[in-house]
Amino acid sequence: MSVCYRPPGNETLLSWKASRATGTAFLLLAALLGLPGNGFVVWSLAGWRPTAGRPLAATLVLHLALADGAVLLLTPLFVAFLSGQAWPLGQVGCKAVYYVCALSMYASVLLTGLLSLQRCLAVTRPFLAPRLRSPALARRLLLGVWLAALVLAVPAAVYRHLWGDRVCQLCHPSAVHAAAHLSLETLTAFVLPFGTVLSCYGVTLARLRGARWGSGRHGTRVGRLVSAIVLAFALLWTPYHAVNLLQAVAALAPPEGLLARLGGAGQAARAGTTALAFFSSSVNPVLYVFTAGDLLPRAGPRFLTRLFEGSGDTRGGSRSREGTMELRTTPRLKVLLMAPNTTSPAASSSPGGMSLSLPIVLLSVALAVGLPGNSFVVWSILKRMQKRSVTALLVLNLALADLAVLLTAPFFLHFLAQGTWTFRMIGCRLCHYVCGVSMYASVLLITIMSLDRSLAVAKPFVSQKVRTKTIARWVLASIWVVSFLLATPVIVYRSVKQLNRTLVCQQDYPSDGHRAFHLLFETITGFLLPFLAVVASYSDIGRRLQARRFRRSRRTGRLVALIILAFAAFWLPYHLVNLVEAGRALAGWDKTDSVAKHLKMARYVLIALAFLSSSVNPVLYACAGGGLLRSAGVGFVVKLLEATGSEVYSTRRGGTLCQSQKATLACPEQGPPEASMTSSTPS
After folding, report:
1. Where is the G-protein coupled receptors family 1 profile domain (predicted)?
2. 592: Cα separation from own chain's centroid
């Protein structure tokens, strides 16, 4: 097709530097979460061959992860497109890549529909459960899903065309073709599947409530998951398909009318809605972790198979067990349109400008989320919590450390936006020193929390004796003193330099030896040793709980997994760059070569990413709060910390179970949780 119908509006993902940076950030974050997460799902389920046969839901989830992984593997191509502002694979690659995206989208939504239908049958027709484990049935269903996806994705290849060797663009020969394609895509990939999911889960909830299963543990989990499924489906895909319908109607409307202008607005919004939809490829693994609950510490890396072993389609399962259903997933779809429309060469900018826009976006997000979130946590503990447990004191100090580092974000945003440091030497050293103190304080607080939790499980009676507020205050004072001392090199090795007529607040080392020392010191004390302590503590907790068959709360299990995951995700990339630069300094390699420049640019991005860790905790508390958020409102943080505290007053409030069991080993379950997250930013 050489002549294409052009929808109203001419804005594209390449039109503005900010949109390119935001699109790159969305893609990288989705890949960071989705690739290892879906890889873990495939690793867990592909080799699992239970004697009774693999549950149908497990097989469907395996293929769902494969579909997610397929589209996420294309992330480097889209990132290269955004950074180079030109499509890198030519006409054939243009059609092939977007055909794979559409194939993955349709496969995901069909698999989600089957999962919801299987959930409904497991509750309403439990006698069909043994048949749902039939390998022949699974093969036929999967064959039908992939064949249907292959057919439905054909228009994505037919209507793709490379415009001017720059943009892989939708190319419809007429307005009628455009309206038909966009409407058909929304009908088959959203309206019909969404109706199926809503119908299935509506029937499921009605049956579970009618049987009075909703008040139990499984009923609560099922209800929460159903809400998450419907919410995620609507949140991630309604904006995208709303734009589809808007442009389909605008294509058939008069070119100068109101609908045509609305279609132009939709074209401008398409890039953002598509990037939001891309996150659907990384949501499922996170949801599995939340669903696993107490299986995660007991089963370790095999928690996913244990989740399906206890599912509702096992042989001989009772009707009530059918109500617990193994599917804990969110409706899945895939990205279809990543770069809609052409752009002019005048809209381009330098790669360096685009690279610096990503830290600006990340810092802005961290500031917008973390400042009000951590302020709310501090207010909740200081104003609404009369009896503060040791855990509450640790969380309070963690929120204060987060707030301290977030208050420096406007200075760094000003520097990135203006390209020069205007706050003199004292501002340079003070801002980075605050960041360094906050980083060390946060890491040490996380370590103390993990050690505290380990002591509560291993030595519960000793834990009760040492977990007093007096000792807690001494420990907190020591943490801050040590943090102030460990961050001292930041002041020594920071100065303001003039580079190319601009002022830069940067690291200034008298020799390569000093550079290597500082980087290694920061990584060892600020990551390696604390991370080893956290891993060792929770490994010991998991081993003891499994050996003694403690029953841990699902809330605590989720927090344990997320603490370790966030610790590594936010800080490992930064400290890997530290190690690489330290090695280059010790080897005496050139500090001005291309590798050094790329490492310097990567450091900007990774520091901004680490800033996000300062905004994660409030989100984590909201997720961990679960039903407390609905029942307690703004007081949910207080209720959460009161429920997980382990001081004498807390133990008395929740001590009925222990008293009834005559002080058996179940009592340590009331030990302190790890209700916090790694936070702060590097120096």
Report:
1. 37-288, 373-621
2. 35
CA-to-CA separations, 253 to 181, 246, 269, in angstroms, rounded: 16, 11, 19
CB 674 within 8 A of CB 560: yes
Q: What is the token pair recorded at 201?
A: 């889960």
DSSP string, 643-674: HH--SHHHHHHT-HHHHHTTS-TTGGGGS---
Q: Show the tokens assigned to 222.
A: 């099922």
Among 617, 628, 641, 522, CA closest to 577: 522
Distance CA 613, CA 527 (A): 14
Residues with pLDDT less than 50, the chain: 1-2, 8-11, 13, 212-223, 225-226, 311-355, 550-553, 556, 560, 629-631, 633-634, 643-683
- Measure CA 146 to chain center: 28
Distance from C-alpha of 61 to C-alpha of 434, rounded to nearest angstrom = 45
What is the distance between the alpha carbons of residues 41 and 307, in angstroms, rounded to a whole number?
12
**Could you count the other beta carbons within 10 Å of the beta carbon of residue 1?**
12
Contact 259, 231 (CB under 8 A): no
Buried residues in 400-438 as b, exposed as e (16+ CB within 10 A): bbbbbbbebbebbbebbeeebbeeeeebbbbbbbbbbbb
Q: Is 451 exposed, middle or buried, given 0-12, 13-18 or 19+ CB atoms closer than 10 A?
A: middle
Of 617, 639, 638, 635, the closest CA to residue 559 belongs to: 617
Spatial separation of the C-alpha atoms in residues 539 and 531, rounded to whole Å: 12
Q: Do strands 160-163 and 502-507 pair parallel, antiparallel, or not at all (unpaired)?
A: unpaired
Q: Quick one: pLDDT at residue 346?
A: 28
Q: What angle do CA 408, 411, 413 make, to 5 degrees?
A: 110
The CA-based angle 462-466-468, given to 5 degrees, is 140
Please tell me the predicted confidence (pLDDT) of residue 125: 77
CB 62 within 8 A of CB 332: no
Q: CA torsion sign, 602 to 608 to 613 to 618?
A: negative
What is the DSSP code string of 291-360? Answer: HHTTHHHHHGGGHHHHHHHTSTTSTT--HHHHTT-S-----------SS-S---GGG---HHHHHHHHHH
Burial category of 146 from C-beta neighbours within 10 Å (exposed 0-12, middle 13-18, buried 19 and up) = middle
pLDDT of residue 234: 63
Distance CA 382, CA 388 (A): 9
The whole-model pTM stands at 0.47
pLDDT for the residue numbered 289: 67
Distance between CA 391 and CA 334 in Å, rounded? 41
3-state secondary structure of 494: strand
Domains, the chain, ranges and CATH?
17-336 (1.20.1070.10), 351-646+664-670 (1.20.1070.10)
